[in-house]
Structure formats: C-alpha cells, structure tokens
C-alpha cells in the first residue's frame, strides 16, 4: 500500500490548537506542564463516537495495542507516550492491522513505507498536539482520512446543530461534514431558458433537482455544485441500440475539393424567440420533491460538507421541455441557464404551468460544475461562455471538441467500445421526454425533424470536419473562460480520447485562470474512490477555496500536473506541465522492422494489405481484444501481411514519453481511397497496471454520518504481458491537408502525410522497446470494409518525433 496526499494544509501550531478546539477535539486548557498521557487519552476518548458509555469507551480503547505486549491502558500505567506508541495506536485507528499491515516493533518504518506523514519525535505537549492534528488528516487503509472515518461514525453529530452563522466549519482548510444529511431539503424547480427548441411558441423550461442543507432555511447561504447530466432523467437505450450505424462497410472515395476553414465555419443563425412568461406570483418553497436522484458519489461527499447539489438533464429530457441537440450551442445555453438562475440572473418556476416564480435565495451565487464524460463535457461547454457565477469546473473525461470524439482526420472514428455510435444515436438515447408518453406526443414530430438534421449534419459518408462539427467545437471559445479549471482524464481512455483534455489544457495556457490537470492510468472512469490518492479531499480543498472564498492555499497546494505512474502501483508524480519541460526531443526514422536514429538514404518501400480471410474477420469483429493481440504480436501469422511493426533496440535508459508524438509517413494505396492507422507500443515482458480498477472494499467509503457509501478502488498489476498499446491515431489519405478539405488520391502514387498520435504520459522502462505499428482498419474504431487495398510506405519519408524525459538505468 502507498498513499499520496496533496490536500494537507501546513498549519501553524496556534492555528492547529484553535481548529482542534473548534471541532471539539481539544476541550481542555493545555500548558507545557500538561500530562502527556492524560492529553493523549483525551484524544483517544473522542475517537470512538459510537461509544455511549464510559464502560464501552474503556473497552474500545482497551482493544488497541500500544506496544507488542500492552494495550493502551496498561501502557499508560507504566510509560509515557512516545512516537512509537503514538503511531502504533494511530495506525490501528487508521484501519491497519497489527502483524499483517505493519509490525508493532516498527510503526514509523511502516508509515514511511505507506508514504504517510509522521512526527519522528513526541516528547512535549506541542509535539503531541501537532501529531494528533496531522493524524486526523492522515489517510487510512479504507481510503479516508481519520477525521472523515470518525465523522462517518457520528463524531460531528453534536455539531450539526451549530447555528448557521458558525457554518461551514473548517478544519485544515476544508469544510467538514457538520450538515445533517438526514434533513437535506429536496426540491424541484423549472428554469426558463432562452430557447424554444421544440418550436411550441414557449421558452423551454428546464427541470432541476436540488439537495440543500436544512441550515439554508435558517439563513445560511451556500454555494452550489451543479452536474449537468443528460442521462439524469433516464435514457432510451433500446431505441439508441436500434439506431447504431453499420460499420461493416467499405470506405468510399470522396470528391476532391478546395475548401478552406472559412467555407465551413459555423455562424449562429438569428432566431426570434417567444416572449418570456408573465410571472403570476412569488414563492419561497418549491411545490415538488423527489426521493432519489441519480447521484455522483463525489457530490454525495460534498453534500455533507455544506455544498448544495444541483442536477439538471437539459433540453429534451424527462420533466424538461425542448428536444435534444447533442453538443451544439443550444445545449450549451440550456446548461448555463441553471447557473444563471443560481447566480440570480434568470427566472425559475415552481411548476410548468402556473408561472409562480421561485428564486435561488439560499445560494451565495457561487457555482462549480462536476461530472465525467458527457457531464464533464457540458461543464467545459459552460465554461467557454464565461457565464457569471461559475467559479470553477471539475471536468472529468470531458469532450472539448465533438469532432475529436466521433471523427479523426477525415474519418468516422467511433469512441472506444461503441462502434456505430454517433451524435444522432446519442441524441436519441438522451431524449428522455420519450419516457412520458403524453409529453412525448407534443414533441415527437419536432424531434424527428431534429434527429434527421443531426444525421445529415454529422455526415458519416465523408467524415470531414464541417459546419455541424464546428458548432460543437468548444475550443473555439476557450478565450471566454473566466473560471478556474481542474481537468481529470484517463491516459487509457479510448472513449473520450486524451486529445480532448490535451487540447483544452494547452488552450488554457495563456488565460488568467488557474488550470490543474490530473492524469490517471484508467479508462473512462471516476477516480474519487481510490485508495492511493486523496482526490475527494483535494476537491474539498479546491471548492472550499473557490466557492466559500477561503484562503486555504488550494491554488498552490494542488499540483499543476499530477500523473499516475504506469509502472509502479499507487504512485503519483507532480510536474509543472504536460510536456513543455520535457528534456528531450527525439526523432526516430523507420527502417525495416526498426525505429532508428538514422534516416533511410534512399527509397525503400514496404507494403501491407487490409483484407482478411472471412473466418479471421468474423472473429475479430466479435473480439477487438483478440484482434489487437494478433496485431501487436510480431510472430502472428494471422496478421503478418496486414501490418508493419517497427521497434527500437532495447532501451539503455528509462524514457518517459510526454505529449503528442508526431508522425510523418510517405504512403500510397492501391485504390483511389484509403485509411491508415497507427499504434505506439511498449514492447517488453512485464506486469502492467490494469486499466480497470479492482474493488478493494465494497461500500467501505462513507460520505458522512448515516449517508451514502462508495466502493474503495485501486489499479492492480496484471499478469506479465509482452506489450501494451500506448497511443494510436487514424487518418483518411484524402485528408492530407486538413480535416475539412478533401485531396485527390491516385492509386499507387506516394503522398506525404503528417499527423499527431493521441497524447500520452508514459514511462517506458529500460530494456523495453518502443514500437510503432502501422496498419489500416481498426476493428474497434474505423469502418471495417475489408477491402483489397494494398498500402506501401516509402521509409525514406517516414519518421516519428516525440518529447520525453530520460533517466539513467
């Protein structure tokens, strides 16, 4: 086990004392003469809030060893607490087991091995208080700091009745769970947008579900954490499945053109909107509630700590009006309407018919957005509007340009795991108004027309960047961002590919906002319940600063770039940036089966084909995993003629590849159309981190007292494997100039291609080989036409360039 904590605030001693008093952990006057054992036992007595009598408390403390032969009571009868005894007890409070997780004879060594902070000497009152303060902020075996574990057992129960003027209650720069989740107010409002997407002559109303502390009724104004989730009110999965596009179709030749960006640039049309509703009255309380929302466990954690939680699914979803548009400016406008209401700049109503206005009077006007995938995508979209009230977004696995989600370099390229999905399929899946039959009838015809327009606009025939996709490119509007941005992305996420976060991160570089980036080794996942990283506490620190305006140093404490190591489990590294401080820029040239430092002196051609025998094709269509294993295996006879593999010599020094590798290829095709795909590969027999986390503890993380729970997760090492795909890329040979322009392709003629692979941050150990695999059809992402198309590479015009850092073996 190894723990990594980045949320701990270095706190002066006097402030430690004050904070311990504020949370009622220190309720006696301490002087240099205070008895150490008496003070230690007073701290321990508060570590069992579930004990309701002195007998039970004595029993609980008596179960803890302070040395190899004595429990706490026996130890304190004969000895004075020191660092060894303190941390022997502390480790047990943190959930570690004597003998299994640590040796009682060496508690400090165990703390060092766990990468946990400790005080090597405890001999004075100031030492003991500082050590206890830090122990409360130390991460335990269950993936929570000790204070959060105590909170889940009822420690803060007495403090939930604090007056609103004394909330939020802060400790170590973070808001504490002193808000009674049993008494959360659940209410529904309908926010009036500036849209009429269903063309019914009325502005679309948008349903929002709110969970806020009871304390807001006593005068406390709280910030809002808002998650825009088109899935929140249900989905039409069966309807979406029926719409999936056929990918077992050949690539087609495209008619050459001379288009420029100006030809396809999106310009918002002028739209005449219906008048606003006439307000018929005012209300302080909502008319509608709900029993259970589709929650995000990070939001559950925040709800116990004084943040109102808001969920809204947007236009065309169940309970709201309008129709789905999938990623366009209308959906962005739908998303920010909720923020505008929370900030006091838009109207909402208690129901959809009576026009009784209700304000977000309980909100302090500060809003953050959270969520993964489509949820994080809409957070990014909202930020690019510069909407007032939005202080920060936490965008996880978010799309920054929808073209980079469904397309690549003039090709239809599916998000990993969903071949055949496209914008129209996603719109259908999220049109949850369909779940209410009578409501659906009112918008059925309009949505059918909208869906047809999406299908036409997405243009699966060419795969080119066009006006449809330009309207869904949030990167164009990054300059409008005024809020701070915290980005999270998986380096093995082939659903929302890493280019999305890479481009957003780079685009933010020159803006006067804080940007933070966390890159993990997973796929398309959340990371708030991982043992090795204090992610929830980091977010608490961040949002306490951003939304409650607490000067806790969050902007400096949280790393600018935090990267999970891909070789060593439970290890994270801080960097100042993604690739700018890379110390090495290397260009490798392609030679037969090799990547070398020497460029080919003359034309040297290698060829491969795209066609597979029907039995192999059928097998690979059913199993992308089997296909990729054969593709990367240099000894595979099945794929021997369908790809080219180039590898470096075994590395003499470790190499950390950073950013987006750039590839130059001089290639030809035997037909008048074609596509190329490439993979960057780590070759070397080794155990590797799995990209799907293992569950270490089922429902072992509690968000608060009598509140919701989450599973504890972590990435585990797999059995040894011969290789691992690091990155990939695809290109249509007719889009050599730009994704929006189609060039001619003459069979057999060589053309120069240049394109980037998906960005990465990958540690390649010494003795491994860096490999480049060039092929055509990607069974998981491109169309699978299985054409008799033969490709050639002229190695004299082929090279791979990348940035890296290097360390000696």
UniProtKB/TrEMBL annotation:
A GO term, aspect molecular function: dipeptidyl-peptidase activity
Subcellular localization(s) per the UniProt record: Cytoplasm
GO cellular component: cytoplasm
Residues of the Xaa-Pro dipeptidyl-peptidase C-terminal domain: 540-801
Signal peptide span: none
InterPro entries registered for this protein in UniProt: AB_hydrolase_fold, CocE/Ser_esterase, Galactose-bd-like_sf, Pept_S15_Xpro, PepX_N_dom, PepX_N_dom_sf, Xaa-Pro-like_dom, Xaa-Pro_dipept_C
Catalytic activity as recorded in UniProt: Hydrolyzes Xaa-Pro-|- bonds to release unblocked, N-terminal dipeptides from substrates including Ala-Pro-|-p-nitroanilide and (sequentially) Tyr-Pro-|-Phe-Pro-|-Gly-Pro-|-Ile
EC number of the protein: 3.4.14.11
Active site positions: 373 (charge relay system), 493 (charge relay system), 524 (charge relay system)
Superkingdom, taxonomy of origin: Bacteria
An individual GO BP term: proteolysis
Key words of the record: Aminopeptidase, Cytoplasm, Hydrolase, Protease, Serine protease
Domain X-Prolyl dipeptidyl aminopeptidase PepX N-terminal as annotated: residue spans: 1-155
Quaternary data: Homodimer.
Family classification: Belongs to the peptidase S15 family.
Function description: Removes N-terminal dipeptides sequentially from polypeptides having unsubstituted N-termini provided that the penultimate residue is proline.
Protein name according to UniProt: Xaa-Pro dipeptidyl-peptidase
Species whose genome carries this gene: Ligilactobacillus salitolerans
């Amino acid at each position: 086990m190894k723990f990594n904590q980045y949320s701990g605030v270095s706190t002066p001693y006097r402030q430690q004392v004050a904070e311990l008093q504020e949370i009622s952990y220190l309720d006696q006057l301490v002087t240099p003469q205070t008895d150490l054992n008496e003070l230690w036992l007073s701290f321990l007595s508060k570590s069992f809030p579930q004990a309701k009598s002195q007998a039970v408390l004595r029993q609980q403390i008596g179960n803890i060893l302070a040395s190899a032969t004595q429990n706490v009571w026996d130890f304190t009868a004969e000895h004075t607490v020191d660092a060894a005894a303190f941390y022997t007890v502390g480790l047990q409070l943190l959930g570690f087991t004597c003998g299994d997780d640590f040796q009682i004879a060496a508690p400090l060594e165990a703390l060092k091995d766990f990468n946990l902070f400790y005080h090597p000497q405890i001999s004075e009152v100031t030492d003991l208080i500082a050590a206890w303060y830090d122990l409360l902020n130390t991460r335990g075996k269950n993936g929570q700091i000790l204070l959060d574990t105590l909170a889940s057992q009822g420690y803060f129960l007495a403090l939930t009745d604090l007056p609103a003027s004394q909330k939020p209650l802060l400790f170590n720069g973070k808001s504490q769970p002193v808000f009674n989740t049993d008494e959360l107010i659940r209410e529904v409002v309908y926010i009036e947008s500036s849209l009429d997407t269903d063309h019914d002559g009325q502005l679309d109303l948008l349903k929002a579900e709110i969970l806020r502390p009871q304390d807001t009724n006593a005068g406390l104004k709280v910030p809002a954490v808002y998650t825009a989730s088109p899935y929140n009110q249900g989905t039409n999965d069966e309807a979406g499945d029926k719409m999936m596009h056929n990918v077992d179709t050949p690539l087609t030749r495209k008619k050459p053109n001379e288009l420029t960006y100006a030809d396809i640039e999106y310009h918002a049309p002028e739209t005449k909107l219906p008048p606003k509703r006439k307000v018929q009255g005012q209300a302080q309380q909502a008319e509608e509630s709900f029993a259970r929302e589709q929650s995000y466990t990070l939001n559950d954690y925040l709800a116990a700590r004084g943040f109102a939680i808001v969920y809204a699914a947007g236009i065309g979803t169940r309970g709201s009006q309008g129709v789905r548009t999938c990623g366009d400016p209308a959906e962005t406008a739908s998303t920010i309407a909720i923020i505008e209401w929370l900030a006091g700049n838009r109207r909402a109503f208690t129901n959809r018919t009576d026009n009784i206005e209700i304000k977000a009077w309980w909100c302090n006007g500060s809003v953050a957005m959270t969520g993964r995938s489509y949820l994080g995508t809409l957070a990014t979209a909202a930020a690019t509007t510069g909407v007032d009230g939005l202080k920060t977004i936490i965008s996880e696995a978010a799309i920054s340009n929808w073209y980079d989600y469904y397309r690549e370099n003039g090709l239809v390229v599916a998000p990993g795991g969903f071949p055949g999905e496209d914008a129209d399929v996603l719109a259908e899946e999220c049109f949850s108004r369909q779940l209410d039959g009578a409501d659906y009838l009112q918008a059925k015809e309009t949505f059918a027309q909208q869906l047809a327009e999406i299908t036409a606009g997405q243009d699966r025939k060419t795969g080119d960047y066009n006006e449809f996709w330009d309207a869904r490119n949030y990167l164009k509007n990054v300059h409008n961002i005024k809020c701070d941005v915290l980005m999270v992305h998986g380096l093995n996420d082939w659903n929302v590919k890493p280019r999305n976060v890479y481009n957003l991160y780079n685009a933010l570089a020159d803006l006067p906002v804080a940007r933070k980036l966390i890159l993990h080794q997973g796929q398309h996942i959340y990371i708030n319940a991982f043992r090795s990283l204090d992610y929830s506490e980091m977010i608490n620190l961040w949002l306490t600063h951003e939304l409650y305006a607490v000067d806790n140093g969050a902007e400096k404490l949280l790393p600018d770039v935090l990267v999970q190591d891909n070789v060593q489990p439970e290890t994270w590294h801080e960097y100042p940036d993604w690739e700018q401080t890379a110390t090495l820029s290397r260009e490798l040239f392609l030679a037969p089966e090799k990547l070398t430092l020497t460029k080919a002196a003359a034309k040297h051609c290698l060829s491969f084909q795209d066609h597979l025998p029907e039995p192999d094709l059928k097998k690979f269509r059913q199993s992308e995993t089997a296909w990729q294993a054969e593709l990367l295996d240099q000894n595979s006879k099945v794929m021997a003629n369908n790809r080219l593999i180039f590898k470096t010599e075994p590395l003499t020094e470790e190499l950390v590849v950073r950013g987006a590798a750039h590839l130059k290829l001089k290639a030809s095709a035997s037909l008048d159309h074609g596509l190329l795909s490439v993979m960057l590969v780590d070759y070397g027999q080794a155990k590797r981190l799995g990209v799907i986390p293992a569950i270490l503890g089922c429902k072992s993380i509690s968000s608060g007292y009598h509140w919701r729970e989450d599973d504890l997760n972590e990435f585990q090492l797999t059995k040894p494997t011969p290789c691992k795909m690091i990155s990939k890329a695809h290109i249509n040979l007719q889009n050599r100039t730009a994704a929006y322009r189609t060039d001619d392709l003459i069979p057999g003629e060589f053309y120069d291609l240049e394109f980037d692979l998906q960005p990465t941050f990958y540690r390649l150990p010494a003795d491994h080989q860096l490999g480049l695999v060039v092929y055509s059809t990607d069974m998981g992402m491109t169309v699978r036409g299985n054409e008799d198309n033969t490709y050639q590479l002229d190695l004299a015009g082929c090279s791979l360039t990348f940035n890296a850092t290097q360390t000696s073996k």
